[in-house]
Amino acid sequence: MPEGDTIYRTAVALRTALLGKKMIDFEAPRLVGLRPQVGQTIEEVRSRGKHLEIIWDDGIVLHTHMRMTGSWHLYRVGERWRKPEHRARVMLAVEDWIAVCFSAPVVETYRDFDPRRHPILGRLGPDLCRVDADLEECVERMMNYDEPDMTVAEVLLDQRVMCGVGNVYRCEILWSCELSPWAPIATLKRAECREIVQLAAELLQANLHHADRVTAPEVPGGLAVYGRQGKSCHRCHDTIKVTHHGEAHRVLYWCPGCQTMHEPMMRPNFTPLYIERDITRGDALSGPMQRELEAERRVSGY
Prior knowledge:
Layout: H1 4-18, E1 25-27, E2 42-48, E3 51-56, E4 60-65, E5 71-76, E6 88-93, E7 97-102, E8 106-111, H2 135-143, H3 152-155, H4 167-176, H5 190-206, E9 241-245, E10 250-254, E11 271-272, H6 287-297
Antiparallel strand pairs: 1-6, 2-3, 3-4, 4-8, 5-7, 6-7, 9-10, 9-11
Helix pairs in contact: 2-5, 4-5
């Protein structure tokens, strides 16, 4: 899944190519909502966490959400597309550029007069990619989460709490804070929630302008736990583990040796996927896990 920093860079690229230009062609075979009209001028391209929006001068907003499969590409007129045409969910053309959104599950339009009325966007938490994000609002949403038994690992991916944190960042944040991924959110103190939110904002904003994420500069490769199953933890030297976790069954990397704060007596929804490291082959993943890892690391190149 593209994370907040990836969507931010995508929006910057689209903004550079499209802003202030009249649209000369538009196709969206699965669009839900009003159809943007050819001839209207593109006034704004904005990102909000993992959501990307394109706004025309008549107030129509195109909202796309990438989830696990979607990505925006930008092409010069006549340039060959890097993905098959049948996967295109949006094709938007101006005089010298074509923007294409591939495989996005959510493609819809609405009027820009009051985004709070949107059933999804109206509930989103502050966008941590923004320097003016209200971090205390995120803390409040964590402290008053409507399901107190939900694990902190699941809450970190809930965009109603804060926008922009994806799977890579949640694994790295929990490791940095030495928190058990299975800690019920209700067991965290306010200072701990504030530490999580502050760190999430710092990491996202530090990675806005380059594609290779670095969450732990002191660690070779820049990532402390994500993708390092079977390897030694840089902090305690225990073996990093990997499992599927939560209702979405997302891949979770953690160190059982040092991520012990608020660890419950029993771990709910725990499906161990112990993967032994073969030093002659490196780390191996099962087919589905490998595909998810590749999806997590995919960054649109402009």
